[in-house]
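Me: I'm a chemist; would you kindly supply a protein sequence with its structure tokens?

Assistant:
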Amino acid sequence: MDSKKDIMKIPNLLSLSRIVLSPLVFVFFQIPGMEGRIITLVFLALLFLTDLFDGMLARTLNQTSDLGRILDPLADKVLVSVLFISLVFFRGLPVVLIIIVFIRDLFILLGGFYIRKTRNKIVESNIWGKLSTAILMLAVLFLIIEDFWYITIVLFGLGFICMTISSVTYLAVFYTMLKNEQKKIMRWAVFFCFLAAIGIVIGLQFVPARFSPGAYSREYYRELNGPEAEDIARLFSPVLWLAEGEQYYPLDVSVYLDHSKIMRQKKYIGLFETVVAVEPVTEEKMHSFNGSDFFLELDHEELSESRTAWMNYKTTVYSRVAQLNRGYIVQYWFFYLGSEAGDSGIYVHDADWEMIQVYLNDSKQPVAAGYSAHYYGETRTWDEVEKISGHPVVYVGRGGHGCFYSEGKHKAYLDNNRLFHAGYDTTGKGERLELDTGYSLSIITDLTWWAAYRGFWAHPGTTELEGPRYRNPRDIRRSMWQSPLAWMRSYYRGDKNW
């Protein structure tokens, strides 16, 4: 095999370009808004075309080579691995999937390398492997579009079936080529199956049930308004314990809208933006510039970051009450002006939304509560929730505003599928806020103009913070607003008999 000569062949250059360019997929996944989706889709389409044409050109131009037989499947594996890493970090896919793919690909690469060294033969990619790559690519395209969830699930299922058949085919090839070493091959196969089983068990510890159909569709709800909604909201209004040293309070959103301008993100990673509306932000301006390409930016020169300036505005908790097919949901939304990374004291972004909700049965009796904390949440039955005179107690993380059921230190997870935590959220009994004496209550619905804003409530370079109607911690398919019960159930580990 003349590697230096073969590397310059067009099919091999296409395969090599796919290997080199695949890591950029991870970068493009981080570009927010519609622009990011379009760039990612176009780039993936180009990579897919290189996969389509390298084999076609190799046969048409008679440029097949041993190097090409190695580069082509290797490029597929690199692309699929980068895709799954990106989907785990940025689209909520279970980490167990990438563990399975990694172990499978490692098994094939090591087996192919061993046969190349001992038998001087190349194990070529098989049709099932190619088919699995194509189907998974199509599934990823649907996932990026953020619609057609059932089609996406079916495609991922088909892709993994083809991947399984491909793995069995590779094992059969290895078994045939190494006729005198079948026992060794079987031992290695059993060993890798054992590793895969361990990986699956470990991976499942990090992942709530993601592929639940209830998590993909909007739930039916009928929002309540007026005195009925206010009576229910007051009945379960939370008691907030702020930690000692807390300087951020849940405030009326006007504190942010009065001192922010609307920006349009123009280029990659937000290096170039333009002002499309100056402060104050009004309903008309939000309606005119409403989309994922826009964001609100706080004017720090006009509004001091000190608590004294903020307290000119009312401490407010926003409540939303809705009747579901079964029971009711009562949500309490907290808007904070300023947010830090856990209790680190490091200022991260200018705004923050957190929420707790109470699920009531048809008789309006509380059954369970769900508390959000950054990208995730936790659900407990009503009996497990600390209460004061029937009101749920919420311990608010100092600086980061995560909602917790108890005081103390809680691991602060970033958007990484809970693989590792970045510091802690510290809660405690510093200042206590209750309805009327500590905060006022305001009812919001689908028709609340600022709640329906599709843009981000801070610079997307620091966080892609959506407003209440589009706030989807970690998994974009579990909308806290559109599918509140699915969001709540996904963070409950017990028997969901409610």
Remarks:
- The mean pLDDT is 79.
- The first strand starts at residue 221 and ends at 223.
